Amino acid sequence: MSENAIGRRQALRGAGIAAGGVAVAGLATATPALADSGGGLLGSWMCVRQDTGSPDKIRLVLSFAGGGVVVSHDISPAGPPLTGTWSSEGKSFRLTMWTGQAGDQGPDSVGPTIRVRAWGSVSHGRLTAKYQVTVYAPGSETQVVDSGTGTVTGRRITA
C-alpha cells in the first residue's frame, strides 16, 4: 500500500454495514413495514456485523427507505455513515453503499473511498446478509488498496 492508504482494520471498520455486513433479524409480528414491496425491508434495523477473520463484532443501524435509498451507520464503535441504493426481489435484496475517509494530511485532505456491496434475505422476521468491502486509493475510482468480506445479522427497530 502507498503511504496515503489507510490500514486494513481502520478501513474495514470505517466501512460499516451493511453497509456495511448486512444481516438483520426483525419483528415476529406483522407491521406495515413488513407489507412493503421491498420484501419487508423498509425501516431501520439494529444489526451486528463481523468482518471475516476478525473476532470484533460491530453494532450498526441499517435503514432501508423508499426509492431505493439505504443508509448504514456503525454505532459501537462509532464510524462514518454509508449511503447508497438497494433493490429487492421477493425476500432477497442487494445493496451498494459508499463512504469516504479523511486523508493522512488531516481532515481536509483527500482520503480513500470505500464501497460496500451486500446481498441477503429476510426470512421468519430475520434479515441476514454477506458483504464485500472495497477500499479505493485517495482520488482513484479504480485503484484498489484493500478489500474484505463479512456477515451481518440483526432485528428491526420498533417505534
UniProtKB/TrEMBL annotation:
It comes from the Bacteria. This is Secreted protein. It comes from Kribbella karoonensis.
